[in-house]
C-alpha cells in the first residue's frame, strides 16, 4: 500500500493506492482519496495479471505526485494503526 498526502494549508488530503489479489484469480488496484480525518472515496479496477495492475497503480501514483501529493508513512483517514 502506498499512501500519499497533500499538505495544503486549508484542507490537507490523502491519496492511497493498494494492489491486491482476490479469490477469483484477478488482481485489483484500490484507490482511495479524501480529506484527512474523514472517510475517503474509493474506486476499484480489476486486472487479469499483476504486471498490468502494477503499471496502472504506478501511473495513478505519478499523477497524484504531479498534483502535489507526497509519500508518507503516517496513518490517515480510513487506515487503521497497526
From TrEMBL:
**Domain WGR positions:** 9-70
* Domain of life assignment: Bacteria
Which InterPro entries does this entry report, sorted A to Z?
Answer: WGR_dom_sf, WGR_domain, YehF/YfeS-like_WGR
What would be one Pfam family of this protein?
Answer: WGR
The name this protein goes by in its record: WGR domain-containing protein
